[in-house]
Every structure is written in C-alpha cells, then in structure tokens.
Amino acid sequence: ETGVTQSPTHLIKTRGQQVTLRCSSQSGHNTVSWYQQALGQGPQFIFQYYREEENGRGNFPPRFSGLQFPNYSSELNVNALELDDSALYLCASSWERDYEQYFGPGTRLTVT
Amino acid sequence: LAKTTQPISMDSYEGQEVNITCSHNNIATNDYITWYQQFPSQGPRFIIQGYKTKVTNEVASLFIPADRKSSTLSLPRVSLSDTAVYYCLVGDVAYNFNKFYFGSGTKLNVKP
Questions:
Q1: Shortest CA gap B49–chain A (Å)
Q2: Low-confidence ranges of chain B (pLDDT < 70)
Q3: B64-88 CB burial, b ≥16 within 10 A, e <16
Q4: Which residues lie closer than 8 Å to A79 by C-beta, 6 or more apart?
Q5: DSSP chain B
Q6: Which residues of A touch B102 (CB under 8 A)?
Q7: Cβ <8 Å between A101 and B101
Q8: In this predicted structure, what is the pLDDT of residue A12?
C-alpha cells in the first residue's frame, strides 16, 4: 500500500510568483484535504476535494485554488505569493471524507 | 464549530502514563473527538477517535465524560519516541470533516 506523497519537498519562490504543489493520495482514497501549517502552529484547513469536486473551504482567499484528478491525486495552486504564505503545506487523504486522514510529509514553501 | 483548548506543553518521564486533556465546551451533538500526533517536519498521524465514554486501541485510550465538554487522551508508559505535538479535534462526522481545526496542540516532552 502506497502512502500519501507530496512534491516537491522544498520550494523557494519570490513574492508575486505562482506555485503549484502536488499530492498523490493513498491507494483507495478518494478524498484529499490541504492544510497550511505556519511555524509553531497547528495545521489550518485550506480546502477539501471529494471525487474531483471542492467539498468545503477554510478561511483562505481565492488565490488559493486546487484540483483533483480522476486518479484522485490533487494540486494546490497559489497565485500572487505573499511573504505570509511561507509555511509547510500538508496534503491528507481519506476514504469518503472519513475522520481518519492520512497525511503526507508536506512541502516546505519559502517566499522571499 | 466547536473550539478546543489544550495545555500548551507537558513534561513527563519514560515509563509514566500521560494524560492530556482537551476542553470543547461548545461540542455539538454530531461532533466526534479525534486526536492526532505530529513529529517535527512530518504530517500529523491519526491516534484515536471517539464519541462518548471510553475508546481504547493499541496506542492510546480516550476518555469522554457524559457531558462531552472535555476529553482526555491517555498514553500508557510513554517513551522518548512519544515526544511530539498532540492535537485534539472536534468535528461533525457527517460531511463536515472539511472543517477540521487543529488548534495549537500540546507539546509533550518525554525525558529519560
């Protein structure tokens, strides 16, 4: 059974640029959630995708967008990067929006 | 959405039992209580979940009193490898797990 994987591991971008982060869900899972974790804080929910549709969104602006593909992998896109977007971005997959989410190792994004 | 309150940090010694309490005074009828563990530079890992009374698995026990306004995660005989941040989450099991809020968690430091 393959766990949740994310790419890239680390990323450095300049303010104003755009970034795409990728997530492959665990085998058999059809739901993917994205979280932003700033240093020293708990993960903050960005949005969730269920069967290729957005299933809910946290308190993040529209420049944070996403996609889920037919194989249930997902992308997180962030436009017009700001310095405060520097964080660990976590992807979690689950079966049918189940409470038990399986997290990937995250992508560390640094915006300079 | 039910907000949770946990101690910021706790210290313990190897071999001791550790109890971490979480307050969730505004818990709703449909809300379940879930605990996650997170090591540095890793995604959170599911520990245990419950609705009322007591739940036990191979890793931990979860105690929930009748009024469900608090819950206690119990870790038996902790080891150095249990040093991590522990998060208490409260969410509706039906279609609202897109609103998982982790809070700041409890940093457990296990000493030799």
A1: 8
A2: 1-2, 92-100
A3: beeebebbbbbbeebeeebbbbbbb
A4: A18, A63, A65
A5: ----B--SEEEEETT--EEEEEE-TT--TTEEEEEEEE-TTS--EEEEEESSEEEE-SS-EEEE-TT-SEEEEEESS--GGG-EEEEEEEEETTT-GGG----S-EEEEEE-
A6: 35, 42-44
A7: no
A8: 98
Interface contact A106-B95, CB threshold 8 A: no
- CB A103 within 8 Å of CB A3: no
* Residues in CB range of B89: below 8 A, 6 or more apart: B4, B33, B34, B35, B36, B100, B101, B102, B103
3-state secondary structure string across chain A? CCCCEEECCEEEECCCCCEEEEEECCCCCCEEEEEEECCCCCCEEEEEEECCEEEEECCCCCCEEEEECCCCCEEEEECCCCHHHCEEEEEEEECCCCCCCEECCCEEEEEC
Does the pLDDT of residue A25 top 70, yes or no? yes
**The two structure tokens encoding residue B41:** 């530079």
C-beta atoms of B100 and A4 within 8 A: no
Residue A111: strand pairing partners: A13
